[in-house]
Amino acid sequence: MKKKRLAAYIAVSVFVSVFAVISGFSQEDVTTVHDSAFRRMMRPAVRFLHDDHNEKAEIEECSVCHHSYDAMGRKLEDESSEDMACSECHTLKNVDDPVPLIRVYHLQCKGCHLEKNAGPVMCGECHAN
Predict the structure, then answer these.
(1) pLDDT by residue (tens digit) across 7-57?
(2) CB count, 10 Å around CB of 73?
(3) How far is Cα 47 from Cα 109, in angstroms, rounded to an integer?
(4) Average pLDDT across the chain, whole number
(5) HEC states along the chain?
(6) Are 92 and 39 in contact (CB under 8 A)?
(7) How many CA atoms lie within 13 A of 64 on its CB side?
(8) The dihedral of CA 114, 62, 57, 25: what is its sign?
(9) Sign of the C-alpha dihedral, residues 34, 55, 84, 88?
């Protein structure tokens, strides 16, 4: 009886270990949208599967989401801001910024979802625990 119980414990342990390893590798592409400018967040940071999102949305160029503008306010089609936080250009409060930081995120993500009639648009759909 003790051998059967020991074998069962080992089998369960192996199963849980394999499941944990597989789960860990399957989360590689999860992107968390968070900006350090938000010191106290009202909702959890947005998490999504970056590559899956871009594939479904048929987004091939990084600059579609990670835009960059020149000093005259013209979008630079061949440049991307993917290595920058949005807060490097946009501020929390509308000082000299035509689009404050929190609105930037909502216009960029939610605006695209509304325009294409695809993807989440309600707060809790993106800001999930």
Answers:
(1) 666 766 666 555 555 544 455 678 888 888 888 888 899 999 999 999 999
(2) 7
(3) 12
(4) 81
(5) CHHHHHHHHHHHHHHHHHHHHHHHHHCCCEEEECCCCCCCCCCCCEEEEHHHHHHHCCCCCHHHCCCCECCCCCECCCCCCCCCCHHHCCCCCCCCCCCCHHHHHHHHHHHHHHHHCCCCCCHHHHCCC
(6) no
(7) 11
(8) negative
(9) negative
Six token digits for residue 4: 């059967």
- Work out whether the CA dihedral 106, 108, 109, 112 comes out positive or negative: positive
Enter the tokens of residue 33: 């949208």
CB neighbours (10 Å) of residue 101?
19
